User: Fold these one by one.
Assistant:
Number 1:
Amino acid sequence: MPIFKLTEGSYLFPPTALADCDGLLAYGGDLCIERLLNAYSSGIFPWYNPGEEILWWCPQERYVIFPKEVHVSRSMKKLIAKGNLQTKINTDFSKIINTCRMTREGETWITDEMEAAYNAMFQAGYAMCVGVYENETLVGGLYGVVIGKCYFGESMFSQVASASKLALIRLCEELKNFNFIDCQFHTPHLESMGGQYIPWQKYRRLLREGTAPFA
């Protein structure tokens, strides 16, 4: 199956049904806000290695967390009750994305281009972050894209135990009426928090319902 090449002059993507078995749909184009909004609202996201052309993915099985179903373990409830860590919404976005990048130095997909693009998305109101602080020092967090009632997680980091879990719990509290949090890929960490696979048909329906007023 051919992989489609995008051009900078058009923000259109090929039909998502044409993605290959791994979910790869297209390559090329750029990371401007218009293209990113079109991608995410269609269930497509960019993911590529530094030095490569931009690769666009649309897996036909999706890994999500439903905010109202997030699993909060007893140990996390104890951590929250202690109050040693605080969370803030949409504070230090640029620092959070940069720290996500730096903590994965040598194996990160967050390029200069991606970092600039998601900072621009945040400034335009289409991205959201959660920071975790200990004595006013940033020690964990996450960021992602938000369109309508759908959230698309991009990356998270933790510099003290369970900080990223706390960030995710806080995100789910903030987005309790959202259709889903798209995790993109399965990890044991996300599975322990309530992540689950759903079929493309269900994902597409929830995506359309959640982004329809903003399409």
Number 2:
Amino acid sequence: MSRIAEIQRKTKETDIRVAFGLDGTGKSEISTGIGFFDHMLEGFSRHGFFDLNCQVKGDLHVDGHHTVEDTGIVLGQAITKALGDKRGICRYGSFILPMDETLVLCAVDLCGRPYLNFDAVFPVERVGELDTQLVREFFYAVSYSAGMNLHIKLLDGINAHHMIEAMFKAFAKALDQAVSMDSRISDVLSTKGSL
């Protein structure tokens, strides 16, 4: 079973192409126009073993909001499409990731019901060219377009670069668990019979 997806979304604000593979090796080609955001998506791909090609042209002359949010929307759509009917997946994943002084918890449920619980305050307004307010917007967009419960909690941290990077990597590890196949699951992991 090939669990890959390609999504293109074009609006007056952004033009986005994403190719996404759940069962990859962590290979990525990322270009969003925001260097630090590229670095975060590369980390997500590498640490989740997802193959990700993400090409974004956005209205960065306005600010980074549309670029980051719309990338989250398209990535969430690609995750859903790649998962297909969700037969055999573990459904749940969680990870606590350390990065120097920072510690982040991430938990995922691929239940089909969107919800984001994001508990973090950043000490600065920007890291590189990324507005730190947009980190929550990205994860909100992913969770809603993918129909997933997503909980991200900053347990400790001082440096905003470390905080954000730990979030993207913890999300990658938790999602990798959730999308993993388990031979004991013949249908979907739900008493309702659907996700």
Number 3:
Amino acid sequence: MSDEMNRYDNPLIHRYASARMSALWSPQRKFSTWRRLWVALAEAEAELGLPISPEQIAELRAHVDDIDFAAADRYERRLRHDVMAHVHAYGDACPTARPIIHLGATSCYVTDNTDLLLLREGLQLVLHGLAAVLDRLALFARKHRDLACLAFTHLQPAQPTTIGKRACLWAYDFVLDVAEIEHRLASLAALGSKGTTGTQASFLELFHGDHAKVRQLEETICRKLGFASSFPVTGQTYPRKIDAQVLAALSGIAQSAHKMATDLRILQHRKEVEEPFEAEQIGSSAMPYKRNPMRSERICSLARFVMSLESSPAMTAATQWFERTLDDSANRRLVLPQAFLAIDAVLILCRNVTDGLVVYPNVIARNLQAELPFMASENILMAAVAAGGDRQDLHERIRRHSQAAAAVVKQLGRENDLLDRLAADPAFAAVDLRAALDPAKFVGRAPEQVDEFLAQVVQPILAKYPAEAAVDEVRV
């Protein structure tokens, strides 16, 4: 047995998330970004007159990605400080530049600016994942825009809707998530070069009290990182409130996905709509006939995990004493990557499920017809009054016939025979009862709402974030 089989393997990486999202949170990406930040710092300091040579900067640039992780590990075991371990490992690779690596900076210069860069790219990946789900939901909604189905309030039969309109309800939740992610991206800034307590004292010392140069240093670093600005005031770290806000946005996506997947599980129970099921897929090891909604169940499972993570950064933000404490570090190492990996997996599953939904119109029609006579009773009442009947007498007749029909359904397990009872009652002889049960008469503007929503709300989003042709594999 290999050593790998004797170690815990995070299923978010092994089974669920995409290679892109896994790579984003990898050690290589993290520590290469640290080195890019050290390069940016050295470049900015040289541009502002500090004695850092072009040769030193070129040496730093040449060794951004070739990290000796074993050396860094040895240093960390001895020094008990991860940032200084990587300073020394970088210095070994860049002996000429070694004296100026990390000049004037504190650890959070690399750790926090890196996290902000990873958060930014992670949110961009999430946006494209959301767009892919919206693309599939839009296709599904458009195809079934006018397929009438039974709607539910309180999980009890209610006035009909259409399959397409219901899909738009799912889609609109994701639309709101897009807006929230875009807002979070627009609000992100760099930590910049704030120093040990956020006062920039070390940089003011480096530049001999020249405040303008200290401000210019931070502006230059932000520009090199691709940020328009830095947070205006901080302690040693960027505000941990940012993590809480980002996790709240990811939790919002999880809530949307959980709601949709739960609806699909109920619909599959009703045999109206099913998630995709592969030719050789096994639903149950004991019951060969089973077609379990396991992808939707997995969406719910992973979504719950993301929602549960939301509390950690909130508590971290609430307990950062004064300019910072280190009790945030281990928690953030776990929560931030895993929240992104899990929501990435959720969106992959949502795209897969919505891309292959199977609709059973005959079952949908049968289930609707079982309840439609009751729902049509008001229309029938109005038609009978228009034909000359007494409204109060007709109301009482429909009430008695409805209760008798309900008893047949509930007590005897038979089909709803309300229509037959009304047809046999002379008071309704002038009413076209079959025409009164046309499902299209009960869905209101649902088909038109689908058209308007897709054109006015969804399409502008898809234009900004075109769906990618490549599809991530789903391990079922």
Number 4:
Amino acid sequence: MRTISRDVSIRLYHLSDADGGAASTLLYGTLADALEVAAAQPDAVQAGLFIQTSNDVISYLDYVEG
């Protein structure tokens, strides 16, 4: 993922295995807000979270684990 600031607008969403891969948006906001929301989710949910910018997508766990 390209270097971005914590103020960039992003979409935080969850891909569910149970719903055939349906994407559910948790938040449209800043990266800082998304990281807070994602960290508050249970581990099972965190595994399916993705951060989307205008030109990239990365899994939440890959982002926080660097």
